[in-house]
Structures are given as C-alpha cells and as structure tokens.
From TrEMBL:
It comes from the Bacteria. Coiled coil: none annotated. It comes from Eisenbergiella massiliensis. Pyruvate binds at T53, I210. It holds the Pfam family DHDPS. GO terms for molecular function: N-acetylneuraminate lyase activity. Belongs to the DapA family. GO terms for cellular component: cytosol. This is N-acetylneuraminate lyase. Keywords: Lyase. The active site is at Y141, K168. Gene3D superfamilies: Aldolase class I. GO terms for biological process: N-acetylneuraminate catabolic process.
Length: 305
C-alpha cells in the first residue's frame, strides 16, 4: 500500500549503474549481467538504474525499459533497485515508472524537469504526477536544478507528498542535508549523491549513498559506510581519501569513458560512452592505467588490471 514502506528501506551503497549499450542503442545484456554480478559480489547493496551515469538522456525509451528489466532480473532479489524515470516528457516518465513497477523495481526516482527552469509549484506538481502513477515509493533527486534561496523550505512540500519516502541529495551544502534529515519526523530516507564526500553525507544524516564511481570500487565505499557505522571515523576518512584520489584520475580522462574502458578491456563488454562522449585513445588508456596503478587501485582490484 502507498505510504507504508517501513523504516528507511534504502541503506548502504548503491552504484549509479553504468549502461552497457551498443553503438546502435541496444542494451548489451550479457555485459550488463556480468557488471551487475561483479558489483553485487563486491558489496553493492543495490543499484540506481538509468540515471545520468547510465546516460539515460542519450537513450530511447525502449532501451531504458530493457535496461531496467534486465538489471532487475539479474539482481534476482539480491539488494534493492531504484529506477530513474526522469525524462523530457512527463508522459514518458509515467510510462517508465509504470514499467519499472511492473518488472519489480523497489522504487522510482526522478531528477527535476530537465532543460527548463520551473518554479517550485510546477516542480511539486511534476513529482505529484509521477509519484501517483505507481504504488512503489518515489525518491526525489535534489540537485542544483533547485535554485531557490532556501532549498529546504522549497522542497519540503515535495517531500511531504504521500508516496515520497526519501531523496538523493546531490548538492554541496551539508547543512541543507542536516535540515532535511529532520523532516518527516526524522524518517526521510536520505542518500548522499557526491561520491567525493560520502563520509560528509553520512555524518550529516544520510542513510547511504548513490554514486557514479561506486561502479568501479563498490566495496571501497562499503568500507567507508561500515567504518562510519562502527564509529571508526579515521578508517572511514582513510578510505574516502583513497576513493577521492581515484576520482581525481577518472575526472582527468573522463569519468564514464574511463570506467567503461576498465571493464571492457577485462571482458565485461559494456560498450563505449554514448555520443557525444569520446572514446579513450590508446595513449589515454595507457596513461589511465599507469596512474591508477601508481595509487594502488589494482592492489584492491587486480581483476581489472
């Protein structure tokens, strides 16, 4: 039933799943299955499927549906799935939400309407329509597209919608997260967005995280999460700094391109970044591998060297 989801059902580490896709826009199912299995074995608690890291806005609707269905089927009850349904058309968003529910997703999520700036009344209506299209819960995506001076006050109405149980927080003002953590009687299910500051998010009230670079180091982020739960902040900080060093290298070469390069070269065929994303050159690939080796990435992930 709507509104009855228990106490914060989404906790832990959720990679924002990369999309294995061919150059003609077809989902690479075998690559997707291998990717999901590898990440689950490495500590992922579930997945955020079909978001920006998944290159959703470069994909057609049918491919997004196939991605969600294949990933959820491969998970086979292991962990929880959140399917991103944000789209240029709200009709497409409704279709994606209803499809996600039909294939067994645990929740849906959506960024604010892309491209245009809408006022908070319009954005609230957008989330009302999407969240009422299904019986599974909605995770709101709070990012920099919310431009109101008092973001917490602005989004409170959205977070009070009956089917909204939580939010992915992808902003850098952690006082805002602190304020959000007290909404709904402290029961709002908050997930940190910025990979580089997962520990900050946990300290300020997050119940876990959703992140792009979780794809290539899920258990490193799991170590941060577990160390925090055990009140071992020094250990959590050590692994956060380690992850941030990897992030710095990925950003230098292109985050999605670099992660796809690492998997493809070791037999997990997830294709190239969607256009206009560029493919790494041979020289860039070698430089990426060299820098990752220097900081010890392959000591933790020898199977990707």
């Amino acid at each position: 039933m709507k509104g009855n989801y228990g106490d914060k059902p989404f906790r832990g580490i959720y990679p924002a799943l990369l999309t294995p896709i061919s150059e003609d826009g077809k989902i690479k199912k075998e690559g997707l299955k291998k990717l999901v299995s590898w990440e689950m074995e490495r500590g992922a608690d579930g997945f955020y499927i079909g978001g920006a890291t998944g290159e959703c806005y470069s994909m057609d609707t049918e491919a997004r549906e196939e991605l969600a269905q294949t990933a959820i089927n491969e998970m086979n009850g292991r962990g929880k799935s959140i399917v991103h349904i944000g789209a240029y058309s709200i009709r497409t968003g409704i279709r994606l939400a209803q499809h996600a529910e039909s294939v067994g997703a645990d929740a849906v999520s959506a960024t604010p309407p892309p491209v245009y700036h809408y006022n908070i009344d319009e954005i609230t209506e957008y989330y009302r329509i999407l969240s009422e299209a299904v019986k599974i819960p909605m995770i709101v995506y709070i990012n920099t597209m919310f431009t109101e001076k008092n973001v917490v006050s602005a989004v409170t109405r959205i977070l009070e919608l009956p089917n909204v149980i939580g939010a992915k927080f992808t902003r850098n003002n952690y006082y805002e997260m602190f304020q959000l953590s007290h909404l709904k009687g402290g029961k709002l299910n908050l997930l940190n967005g910025p990979d580089e500051t997962l520990l900050c998010g946990l300290i300020m009230g997050a119940d876990g995280g959703i992140g792009s670079t979780y794809n290539i180091m899920p258990d490193i982020y799991k170590k941060i999460y577990i160390a925090y739960l055990q009140s071992n902040i020094e250990e959590a900080q050590r692994w956060q700094f380690w992850a941030d060093a990897v992030i710095g290298i990925l950003l230098k070469f292109g985050q999605i391109q670099s992660m796809k390069y690492l998997f493809c070269r070791k037999g997990i065929d997830i294709g190239k970044a969607e256009k206009p994303g560029a493919e790494l050159s041979q020289a860039e690939g070698k430089a990426l591998m060299k820098e990752l080796k220097i900081i010890g990435y392959f000591h933790e992930y020898p199977e990707l060297e």
